[in-house]
Structures are given as structure tokens and as C-alpha cells.
TrEMBL record:
Residues 2-144 form the N-acetyltransferase domain. Keywords: Acyltransferase, Transferase. The lineage of its organism: Bacteria, Pseudomonadati, Pseudomonadota, Gammaproteobacteria, Lysobacterales. This is GNAT family N-acetyltransferase. Pfam families: Acetyltransf_1 (PF00583). InterPro entries: Acyl_CoA_acyltransferase, Bact_Acetyltransf, GNAT_dom. It comes from the Bacteria. PANTHER family: AMINOALKYLPHOSPHONATE N-ACETYLTRANSFERASE-RELATED, AMINOALKYLPHOSPHONATE N-ACETYLTRANSFERASE-RELATED-RELATED.
């Protein structure tokens, strides 16, 4: 049985490890600072999946977005399940929890972006009822 709950600072070492599996290395201190910033917004949350031994085996970040081009929606900003725990339905539980979070805020659409090479993730989201709405390029510029 997996438990889905809000992330806490004491989860930081496992969240950092999972970040590495996702391809975004981070240390405990960085995760603690990032969690504090996310919690302060009240428009986003990080959910964790905890196994029966109390070990965090996955996380999902969801955030509410406001924009002039449409009604408020929510977006999954990140999702990872540890390699050893994949295929057990934990990702689906996290997505279901994100959908419930968005629904409780009165949000009527949840979106997710997935890198083009993450074909396994694309199939996961399609099985969860998501459809590809568009493709795009993401541009970034470091601000020194």
C-alpha cells in the first residue's frame, strides 16, 4: 500500500536522489530551499508517494497557473517514480492526487509537458487519459 502525502523537509534526501534519477541532480540543501519556496506560494504543492516501509519512492509537483490567454489551469511540473518502484501504479496514484488537488481549487484542466525523448512517459500519460495538445520548443536564456 502506497501513501500519497505532501512533501516535508525531512524528505529532502530522497527527493534529491529521485531528482537525480529524473536527470536533474540536486542536494539536500537545494531541495529544502526549493520546497520552502514552493510551499510559500500556496499555488503549488509537492506530493510524495511513500511505500509501506515509510520510504519515499516518488514525487510529483503540481502548480496552478494564471494567464491572460485563458482560464486558470494547473500543470504537473515534475513527476518521478524511483526505478525500483516503477510499474506498480505509483505514478498513476500521484497523478490522481494532483487531479484531486486541482479539482479542489476549482481548476478544470490539468496539463503536463514531457520532453520529446521521454516516450515511456508519453505512453504513461496517454494511459492516464491525457492527449497531446501541441508540440513546442522551449527557449531559455541565463540571466546573470
Amino acid at each position: 500500500m502506497t501513501t500519497i502525502r505532501a512533501a516535508r523537509t525531512y524528505d529532502a534526501p530522497m527527493l534529491a536522489e529521485l531528482n537525480g534519477e529524473l536527470g536533474y541532480p540536486a542536494n539536500r540543501q537545494q531541495i529544502v530551499a526549493r520546497l520552502a519556496a514552493i510551499e510559500a506560494t500556496k499555488a503549488a504543492c509537492v506530493l510524495v508517494a511513500e511505500d509501506t516501509h515509510g520510504r519515499v519512492v516518488g514525487w510529483l509537483q503540481v502548480a496552478q497557473t494564471a494567464q491572460l490567454t485563458g482560464d486558470a489551469d494547473a500543470e504537473i511540473l515534475g513527476l518521478v517514480v524511483g526505478e525500483a518502484a516503477r510499474g506498480a501504479g505509483i505514478g498513476k496514484q500521484l497523478v490522481d492526487a494532483a487531479e484531486a488537488w486541482a479539482h479542489a481549487k476549482g481548476i478544470r484542466r490539468l496539463r503536463v509537458r514531457s520532453r520529446v525523448e521521454r516516450e515511456r512517459a508519453h505512453r504513461f500519460y496517454e494511459r492516464a487519459g491525457y492527449t497531446c495538445a501541441k508540440t513546442q520548443r522551449v527557449f531559455s536564456k541565463p540571466l546573470d
